[in-house]
Design brief:
Blueprint: E1 2-3, E2 9-10, E3 25-33, H1 35-51, E4 56-61, H2 65-78, E5 83-86, H3 90-99, E6 103-113, H4 114-122, E7 126-131, H5 138-143, E8 146-149, H6 157-169, E9 183-185, E10 193-196, E11 200-203
Parallel strand pairs: 3-4, 3-7, 4-5, 6-7, 6-8
Antiparallel strand pairs: 1-2, 9-10, 10-11
Bound molecules: S-adenosylmethionine (SAM).
Length: about 200
């Protein structure tokens, strides 16, 4: 075990340098994407999910090749394994996840407080984390194993996804290494240092 800068205990990295999540597998289902309204927010949900420890996203709603291609491109450039797919039926996406043994976590301001249920959620090996766009159908609340609120205040699917993943992974997501990246950033106190593959430092 190691200790991260915040003093949180985190397991050592696995051989790929990925986050050890005790075998946990997390997919984010973005419900009800609307091409005209949600392009940016849906992209940000996907990118936040990728950066903060999820293993993939499923896009639901209007099929949007631009969003899907954009997220795939980021994953290809910045590394790591991240599955990106589209499913026209959210019912099917939830049924398939359940069949594969996943518990369904629906993020909603109406749910139970994240701080009260996260312990129970962490015990699950596979999760489908559902975030909405417009009005979320009532059946999603009923089908979910957990309806989870990141505060009882209305805010954003990006914020809810990020904070939920952080609570779930307890900071280990911050240690994640992205394998086979074409670009990687070297953290610096000031300035920008980006390493390209094959390793070539580019300093601006
Ligand atoms: C902008 S909200 C729209 C909610 C929608 N108007 C409704 O009635 O369900 C989009 C999504 O952000 C997430 N969200 C917003 N606030 C949240 C909160 N306090 N806790 C958890 N998730 C939240 C939910 O997944 C929600 O479906």
């Amino acid at each position: 075990m190691g200790e991260n800068p915040q003093g949180r205990i985190c397991p050592l990295r696995n051989i790929n340098g990925g986050v050890l999540k005790a075998g946990m597998h997390v997919t984010v289902l973005r419900l009800g994407h609307r091409k005209n309204r949600d392009k940016r927010v849906t992209t940000h949900v996907c990118l936040a999910a990728r950066a903060l420890g999820a293993d993939g996203v499923v896009l639901n709603g209007e099929e949007d090749d631009v969003v899907l291609a954009g997220v795939r491109k980021v994953a290809d450039t910045w590394g790591g394994k991240f599955a990106v797919s589209y499913e026209a039926s959210w019912r099917k996406a939830i049924a398939k996840a359940k069949k594969n043994g996943a518990s369904v976590v629906h993020l909603t301001m109406y749910g139970e407080r994240v701080q009260d249920v996260i312990g129970a959620v962490r015990k699950k090996k596979r999760l489908l984390v559902v975030v909405g766009a417009g009005k979320v159908p009532g059946d999603v609340y009923r089908l979910a194993d957990f309806n989870v609120a990141v505060t009882g205040q209305p805010h954003s699917e990006v914020a809810a996804t990020a904070i939920f993943l952080h609570e779930l992974l307890q900071g280990r997501e911050l240690e994640r290494k992205f394998t086979s990246a074409k670009l990687a950033i070297v953290p610096q106190k000031s300035g920008k240092k980006v390493v390209c593959r094959p390793l070539r430092a580019r300093k601006n």
